[in-house]
Automatic annotation (TrEMBL):
<comment type="pathway">
    <text>Cofactor biosynthesis; thiamine diphosphate biosynthesis.</text>
</comment>
<feature type="domain" description="Thiamine phosphate synthase/TenI">
    <location>
        <begin position="4"/>
        <end position="179"/>
    </location>
</feature>
<dbReference type="InterPro" id="IPR013785">
    <property type="entry name" value="Aldolase_TIM"/>
</dbReference>
<dbReference type="GO" id="GO:0005737">
    <property type="term" value="C:cytoplasm"/>
</dbReference>
<keyword id="KW-0784">Thiamine biosynthesis</keyword>
<dbReference type="GO" id="GO:0004789">
    <property type="term" value="F:thiamine-phosphate diphosphorylase activity"/>
</dbReference>
<dbReference type="GO" id="GO:0009228">
    <property type="term" value="P:thiamine biosynthetic process"/>
</dbReference>
<dbReference type="InterPro" id="IPR036206">
    <property type="entry name" value="ThiamineP_synth_sf"/>
</dbReference>
<dbReference type="Pfam" id="PF02581">
    <property type="entry name" value="TMP-TENI"/>
</dbReference>
<protein>
    <submittedName>
        <fullName>Thiamine-phosphate pyrophosphorylase</fullName>
    </submittedName>
</protein>
<dbReference type="InterPro" id="IPR022998">
    <property type="entry name" value="ThiamineP_synth_TenI"/>
</dbReference>
Length: 200
């Protein structure tokens, strides 16, 4: 299973140091999500991340910065996806970009063939968004007609729920609150998640 970390929407004290620590500990993919951040703030953050890790970063906003930093991963929110033409997505794919998106309706998944993977959630009640609750039962199992895009479970995921997410059929997990609700324990939490995933 893949393990993806999404940044908190707000700036966290010591965030870039934590991000570098997570990468050094083996994080393979970070989704840089700062919906309220302007381009200068995103640049300021990226400038403090070791450039060796840019290839592991996906941009949620300010896609225009991808060329500046040599980033080849772009994420589209549901609304951004709806405002993007299939031709643009195909052009990005032809130029080597890895594309991801977010969905809240599994019926859409098989139609999103331009995307490599999609976040679906909340799988469990969100840790970072109070009141953002899951509609999935513990017995839920994915029923797919296509292997693309890969589906990544999101929402309320801690290391104890990883076996359940695996049993549901998700190809990976994306975590946010588990890491950033206690930034001082971010590295410890990441290591625990990684160790558990490696046993599944």
């Amino acid at each position: 299973m893949q393990l993806i970390v999404i940044t908190d929407a707000e700036v966290i004290d010591g965030e870039t140091a934590i991000i570098n620590e997570l990468f050094n500990a083996g994080l393979s993919r970070l989704h840089l999500r700062k919906p309220g951040g302007n381009a200068q703030q995103i640049c300021a953050l990226l400038n403090q991340v070791d450039a060796a890790f840019y290839s592991r970063i996906a941009l949620h906003q300010h896609h225009e910065l991808a060329q500046v930093y040599g980033i080849k991963r772009l994420h589209y929110t549901e609304s951004a996806r709806q405002q993007t033409t299939p031709a643009l997505l195909q052009s990005l794919k032809s130029h080597g970009y890895t594309l991801s998106t977010s969905i809240h309706d599994l019926a859409l998944a098989d139609s999103l063939t331009a995307f490599d993977y999609a976040f679906f959630g909340p799988v469990f009640n969100s840790l970072s968004k109070p009141g953002y609750t899951s509609n999935l039962s513990p017995a839920f199992r994915l029923d797919r007609h296509s292997s693309k895009p890969e589906l990544i479970g999101l929402g309320g995921i801690t290391h104890g729920q990883l076996p359940a997410v695996k049993a549901m059929g998700f190809e990976g997990v994306a975590v946010l609150g588990a890491i950033w609700n206690e930034p001082g324990k971010a590295l410890q939490t990441f290591e625990k998640l990684k160790t558990t995933i490696n046993t599944l």
